Amino acid sequence: MRNLIRIAPLLFAVLLPLSARADLPGRHPAYLHALSDLRAARWLLARRPADNWVTGQESEAISEIDAALVDIQKAAIRDGKDPGFQPPPNMPGERAGRFRRADDILRQVYRDLARPEDDPFTVELRDRAIRRVDHAIRATDRAIVATGQ
């Protein structure tokens, strides 16, 4: 028991920085997951261009994702999160084509970001990121229609 009392402050000092990386309740809980998911969706869209028209849709979606990443990174920093910490992304099954998988991920990001936020500065960044993700979803949907995925 005495040893536990002696090492408790050490354990606290070691575990505190790790807990700071976690999404804390009371703050926006999904910024870090949204960042990981956006990076995964971007990779799916950028990894293999198809014909020129679809490439235009991919480029539009990728540009919107890049802008959303910047906004969410700023919001995460403002919210006290470490934007360099990357939890694993939510990857849909392999059966769907890459556009549909990217679309599923983007829709999850949209749902994650749409949660309530109480910091006025962060709300503005979050709302801008939501609009950009919405534009990326629409561009990805057009690519799905064009390729018949």
Defining key terms:
single chain, 149 residues, mainly alpha, globular
Notes on the structure:
This protein has 149 residues and is mainly alpha-helical. The protein has one domain (2-147). The chain has 5 helices and no strands. Helix 4 packs antiparallel against helix 5 (120-147). It is globular, with a radius of gyration of 19 Å. It starts with a helix and ends with a helix.
Q: In terms of structural class, how would the helical and strand content be classed? A: mainly alpha
* DSSP helix fraction: over 70%
Could you give the order of the helices and strands?
Answer: HHHHH
Provide mean pLDDT, rounded.
78
Question: How big a fraction of the residues is strand?
Answer: under 5%
Task: Let me know the largest β-sheet.
Answer: none
The number of E-state strands comes to 0
Radius of gyration: 19 Å
In short:
With 149 residues, this protein is mainly α.
Q: Helix and strand layout, with pairings?
A:
Elements: H1 2-21, H2 31-46, H3 52-78, H4 98-113, H5 120-147
Helix pairs in contact: 2-3, 2-4, 3-5, 4-5
